[in-house]
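stage 2 :: seqdesign
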């Protein structure tokens, strides 16, 4: 069964990203790809091939750190 995903805050994600895909799978929320917004503190703006996951909506893990991420 699926439980509700409750917002954990407005600034918990490690980068500012738009136009991404999101899915809940294997008890985690996954954020895939998208466009990193200009002014993002930890990344250059532009297209992203990053994949993040979180089991709680507060702590996020970069899952594909071995790739050449934008």
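stage 2 :: out
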């Amino acid at each position: 069964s699926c439980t509700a995903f409750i917002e954990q805050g407005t600034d918990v994600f490690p980068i500012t990203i738009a136009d991404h895909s999101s899915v809940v799978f294997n008890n985690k929320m996954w954020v895939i790809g998208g466009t990193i917004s200009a002014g993002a503190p930890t990344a250059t703006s532009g297209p992203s091939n990053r994949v993040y996951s979180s089991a709680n909506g507060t702590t996020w893990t970069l899952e594909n750190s071995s790739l050449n991420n934008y």
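stage 3 :: structure notes
- The chain is about 0% helix and 30% strand.
- The beta strands are 17-18, 21-25, 28-32, 35-36, 46-47, 51-54, 61-62.
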